[in-house]
Amino acid sequence: MAVSIALIVLLGLLSDYAFTKIKLPGLLGMLIIGVVVGPHLFDILKPELLKVSADLRMVALVVILLRAGLELRRDTLNRVGGTALIMSFLPAVFEGVVIAFLAPPLLGLTFLEGAILGSIIAAVSPAVVVPLMIKLIDDKRGTAKGIPTMILGASSVDDVFVIVIFTILLGMNAGGDSAIFTKLLEIPESIILGIGVGTVAGYGLYRVFEKYKLRATKMTLVVMATAIILTWLEESLKNVVAVSALLGVMTVGFVILEKVEVRAHKISQKLAKLWIFAEILLFVLVGAQVDVSVAWNAGLSGGALIFAGLIARSFGTYMSLFGSGLNVKEKFFCVVAYIPKATVQAAIGAVPLEMGVPGGEVILAVAVLSILLTAPLGAIGITITGKRWLEKE
Fold this sequence. Notes:
Blueprint: H1 2-21, H2 26-37, H3 47-51, H4 53-69, H5 74-87, H6 90-107, H7 111-121, H8 126-138, H9 147-174, H10 180-212, H11 216-237, H12 245-259, H13 261-288, H14 292-320, H15 328-337, H16 343-348, H17 351-354, H18 360-389
Helix pairs in contact: 1-2, 1-13, 2-13, 4-8, 4-11, 4-12, 4-13, 5-9, 6-7, 6-14, 7-9, 7-18, 8-9, 8-18, 9-10, 10-11, 10-12, 11-12, 11-13, 12-13, 14-15, 14-18, 15-18
């Protein structure tokens, strides 16, 4: 396994350098390397590494979400909070509904199977979006109007909303008591408890840091460990209450920034260095989940369905920005920023097939194809439009 990690690091760094040289996002090169060395193509990675792939990807995601939280300022959140809330569900609804109606004629699925597919495809990828928003914040592009912060918050809640809808639709397909109203209540429950748990953890860490005066490296390790425990807490309590660990992790960073800004910046600097390694692991391992042959089975009809959904999503995103005070270019940047799909689709794309949903194979094929089409398109789009359309503060 150690050799596989070494190989991932070397190839990841090489691809990052090569793609940056040709003015493309480095993460795109890492995703491609993941596909190439993964089990579905050349199968170079050790099976032991792939078994812990989900845990490693979660740790990497925790690193970048903590950095996101450490960049979330209260005044900016107050300014963009309403718009971010609308963006967290309206684009996903538009995309999911269009896919649900088009999937039967294009792919031969039932309406319910199309709706399940729509709920999988409709999630934006925090793995792709969050690192790119952090880079924009570091470059101070769009920060005067809080645009990267708005997208950070909205994309995190978007995943909570979509996964709850996906769970409801799976229950309906199984024919059991899906308890739709109860499931829908999990959306605010997950958000509120996630923020609440993150607030308590963040305040507790602040008190510990004030009392024991830890060095920046030790503070970073403590914060990381606490954030990882929050992800475990979400998994442990999922049959009792819904808790959004992603929002909790971001809230930890936010509270530390509010309470002691100097320490927050020190932790953020350490996490920035750790992210160099975590980023490679995250994107190479996400790429390793992608089976190109499965995506091929989706064909032109699957591609047409995905792009029809993106058009609907883009319309929903633009509508969400009415009254936001953004100019046309900034609104179109937000539309582009909401394109990438990877994390959620890789995580739950195969669940309908595993649960015996009749159209499960088709659903998986389209989910994988959506990663191949939208992750590169979105990453390139965000990088280019961010430089051209967002003002540098």
